[in-house]
Amino acid sequence: MSVVATFLINTIFNLIVGLIVAKFLGPAEYGKFALAIAFMTFGQALAFEWIRQAGVRFYSERSRLTAPQVRATLDAAFSVFALVFAPLSLALAYLGPASLLPRDLMALAFAASIANGLFDYQTALARARFNDRLYLLLIVTKNLLALVLTAGGAWATGSAKVAMIAGMSSLLGSIFFWRSGLIDREARLGLADRALLRQYVGYAAPIVAALVLYLLIPLVNRELVARLYGFAETGRFALSFDLGQRAVQAIGSALDVLLFQIAVRAHDAHGDEHARAQLAQNMAVVFAILLPACVGVWIVLPSIEALVVPQAYRGPFAHFLALMLPGMFCLGMGQFSIHAIFQISRKTMPMVAAALAACIADPIFALLLPRGPDASSLAIAQSMAFAVGLVVLIGFARATRPQWPRFRDLALTALACAGMAALAGPLRDRNPGLVLILVQMGLAGAFYLLAIAIFDIAGLRRIFLDKFQPARLWHGRKVDC
Hints:
This protein is an all-alpha fold. Helix content is about 85%, strand content about 0%. It has helices spanning about 1-45, 50-60, 60-65, 70-95, 105-130, 130-155, 160-175, 180, 195-230, 230-270, 270-310, 315-345, 350-370, 375-400, 405-425, 435-455, 460-465, and strands spanning about 470-475, 475-480. Strands 1-2 form a two-stranded antiparallel ribbon. A hairpin with a 2-residue loop joins strand 1 (about 470-475) and strand 2 (about 475-480).
């Protein structure tokens, strides 16, 4: 549970820093910053995400002690790719195709890709070893530095470039502070194994290809918003997506850290049948937590906007986020639920096909939807594209004949969420503020918890009651949760 708490802390800090940066940069400068962040995330995924994915899947405390070549291969791969990526990305930034983003800011974005990739890689290794203390220290230190440096830099200068540099400094500073716990002295680079490298690339390449394709959608849409409506609209569009997606990703990632590792252990220890049962349970849990979270965000959205969103973004923020939420839910369900089916079986090419379908769908929807005075049509197109990706992904998953969650759990989750919306939704626009949020959360939360208590949706009641036990019986089998 400490990992979940760490994810929540990280999300809260990210939201706070993001809002402060947006306030002091202003919509136009924040639009440049957000487009730079999109380039940074794209570059990181393209160059370094496969190493992180391989670390999560193949590195552990056991391999650290008995197979140092695993860590050595991962470290060597990151070092080589960083050395190659740096000059190539700089050449692309200054000599490549022109973008609306200034070339020096694009160069900073690609430099930040390396820093962010290194931080995510190191935190992934800490999580893979179940070293919760080290993981917590890395996250908290990074966020405290970001609060001082990134938010402070935006306040002092109003510059997207300064905010980017400060963000990199917070990532590298956290790694520097806790470097002693991150170093594995037995994993000398000379132990790197090319056979292991080929195995890692074969496993992770389709996963990364799918992620890169999904990242292209918001990246291209931000570029389109900037070209059609200007950087100020890009800032408003991006703030809605960034804050909403961070919340959804934090919930999904926290679940994924726990559930995916449990599924891996079930597969390694008990074989395919046990793993399929665990994956079905995992899917039910993700659905039963992610859907009410998205519905809850929609319920309290006007009050959240009134309380924390800077004045220059109000109105468009809630409007765009409401249009994007269905797509965020679809993307989260695909990434943190359905993807595990292919990752466990190590047959990950369908993930690429689903992401490609979403990429093709996005411009089609953008062309077909009527263009209005703001970027609403692009927000709707983005949501519809992510929904197409989820549908295609489920279609491929059906071909593998997995064990699916019980229909009862999915139906009860949907009905309970409908009850939440019916109870608290009509209050959305009634004096938005802290009191209204507390009332809405009380009504909606109590209703959903009551439904869990009565119907044991997705086994959540049993999970709560058995939280101090490392394992429990589920459908006659010993299934971790």
